[in-house]
Amino acid sequence: MLQSMRENMKGPTAKIVVGVAVAAMVLFGVESLFVNSVGGSEVATVNGEDVSEIELLRAIEQQKNRLRQQFDLDETSDMLNDDRLRTPALMNLVRQKALHHAASEQGMNVSPSIVKAELAKAFTRDGEFNKAQLNNYIAAYGYTPATLAQSEANAYVLRQLFNGVSQTEFVTQAEMDAMAAIAGQKRSFATIEISRSLVEDKVTVTDEEIAQYYQANEAQFTEPEKVALEYVEVTIADLAKTQNVSDKELKAEYDREQQEFQGGTEYRVSHILIESADDSAAKIAEISAKLKEGQAFADLAKEYSDDLGSKALGGELGLMVEGAFPAEFEEAAKALSAGNVSAPVVTDAGTHFIRLDEKVVVEPESFESRKEALAAMLREQKASVAYLEKIQVLEEVSFGASDLSATASALGVPVKSTDLFARGRGTGIAANTVIANAAFAEDVYAQGQNSQVLEVEGSRAFVVRLKQKVPATVQPLEDVKESITQQITQTKVINELQTLAADVVIAIEKGEKPEVVAEEGEYSFNNYEGVERSNTDVDFMVSREAFSLPRPDAKSPAVTTVNGAEGLTVVVLSEVVDGDVNNLPKEQRDAMEQQLRNQLASGAVESFENRVFEGAKYKLK
Fold first, then answer.
1. pTM (2 decimals)?
2. Which among 262, 285, 564, 576 has the fewest CB atoms less than 10 Å away?
């Protein structure tokens, strides 16, 4: 969940969702996001526990943001369609509920202090806890502070559950031997390359063959039916550019922020942690002595600290978030002056030497420094309200109209148009499933009417109308003759090569030596001894096939053929020598063992998830 938070607070999605959330709060009050927007509806039950509509909507939006980040998708992409994502998002929630139920039955839980610390880390940017981002995230995704904490608690428990399952896996010596035998395997083989040039000059294509191919494959040369649309569009982003915000409104919003502002003091700290052990007292005394001698705190942290997370950073912990550290730690840190180091402080984690790196009194930003951001926020709030009003106008004026001119005039926007596109092949707005489906719907496509209002991503609204329709047409033979000739030629060349290769394989299987067969046919011959899988001197396709062949028996080699751009290659495998784990360097053995353990752990977690899911009692509504 924490990774999801970090991803979801990046890019345009945060702005869009927060804008919609703010609009809802302006119009209906903050409770609308948490209660009225879902009306208490449930979309599924899992082992007696409900999955709410808002949980599903949140999961869909988070998945959409992951897809945007991963594939750099345009907002009109079909991959971001709500209907497309709804079912997989719902089933993923069902699986999570089932898994958490299984964890709860085993008595697994997490303390509120850990959850608080995890949330603090999730919303820390550049070493500083960002409360504004936390509040925006809560509003944007329909959380309350309590439900966000519960969601993170559930996610934390599942992480611990999966970690426990994966840690049960171990690697046996037999598994290591088997993996090393394959990974370190060496193979000896010969290749006979039959070049395309040997048969290309012999291949001819007649006009009769071209005509027959054209008639038999008419669908291949048919241009699909296409349409072009004209449309009007209203967006929150465009409306925001036209909104005016007065100085009075800015000052009122700034004053509201100041009333909610929570000042205080921020502490940046570093520490050296000595965990309890037989020699801990000696270490603590040694560190105390070296600090008194003036040795650098960071150097001592790198040498002595048992906190692996901060050790390499010279003990730096960054901002001390209230409640995220033990009470004894926080009290000692707050009592220090900047640059000073505490006496040893004992907590449940061990003994700490704490240095206060910086102490900053947090003060509110000035009106001038906040003015630009406040103006942008208020413009977006107003645009969200205006957007809903424009949708009303869009619906009323476009309904039953014979064109889009009156609609465009009423909204103050231009009539735009798309290029011609076929079903499922649109670009721009036509790539969006909602728009594409409307283009070929009965009212627009057959009756020539304006579409209903089509809303995309909750921030863009369209009405579309058919502009042009081009029926499916078969391309003339003359336009595709060259393409057909090339396809027939290619087929004949491959057939000729396969015939020659078949003769080579038969000769080798009868006992003739590969080099002799290659010489007789005037083919290129190469011999490879003890080739490893990672060898880059051999063509990749040839090497892959050579390592896919079964072991040759004592009487005959194993033989296969490989298609290539320059011709066809016959691969003749003569010997296989397995790898030996004892011959591998220690680093390679360790890496192999870790890789195998990770694979087994992944399989164990997946198997566990499947068993839990299969045993769950769930119902989709």
1. 0.53
2. 262
